[in-house]
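Re-run with default settings, no changes from the original entry. Doing this only to confirm the output is reproducible before filing.
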Amino acid sequence: MTLFEKIVARQIPAQIVYEDDLVLAFRDINPQAPTHALIVPKKAIPRIAEASSEDHALLGHLLLKAAEVAAKVGLNENGYRLVINNGRDGGESVPHLHCHILGGRALEWPPG
């Protein structure tokens, strides 16, 4: 069971900012920006490269809810970045698909 599955199951506490039947959003414990939340599907999908066509609606829901969470945590006025890491070289640290919602400062490009 991954760290995020344990958070979804409430086995590990988290500062939850949004939840519905399909996704859970919570504050990152190691923030990389003044505002940094994660949104994860409750269905355990290891990474975006392992999502299938049956996950089509869930992936769309995840992104739409990421935008709602960004607004809820006050990032709409100045903007924000959504990041999905895939694999070791992509910066993936937990093998459970998740989207980072980053903002609260100007973000550099290119990242990383």
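The longest strand covers residues 35-41. Residues 91 and 112 are 9 Å apart (CA to CA).
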